[in-house]
Amino acid sequence: MTMQALPQREGDRPDTGPAVPHVQFTQTSPKAVREQLRQWMSTEFPDTVTGPSEISDPGAFAVFLDGHAPAKGAVLLPPRLTAEFAHVHVDGSLHLALSPEDQKKLLARGWGEPHPLYSAEINVVMLYAPRTVEELDVARTVLEASYRYATGHDRVAV
Predict the structure, then answer these.
(1) For the chain, what is the domain count?
(2) pLDDT of 155
(3) At what angle do helices 133-151 and 31-43 cross, to 10 degrees?
(4) Model-level pTM?
(5) Do 6 and 106 touch, CB atoms closer than 8 A?
């Protein structure tokens, strides 16, 4: 699946916090789905490292560029804006950096919302927590788009 083929999200929008910390209160991920997502994030992206988020609540698991600068024009997550491109919260929702085109697709198809602090300088959108194994594939697709935005190239199987 590509961001171009992203399906429309089924069901109502989940309840999320209107301010920081920006979290999801309803329709959270089952523990097994969250664990599969974290494991996948740990192994799928070349030239990255994983660990605690530099910006999110305790327990958030992030992916960082390892030893190289982001692609020209890419604005990643604060505070550095140069390393962390995605993190998953304990509720299963994610914050990530995406290109403007991919942000539009994500929002138009009902998979997420802008972060309350979103601006030209704070390029953060929320991807709603995957509720099923099928929605886990959507999360993987969106994370691959975030990686592509951060690095300027596609993921290569490792």
Answers:
(1) 1
(2) 67
(3) 30
(4) 0.94
(5) yes
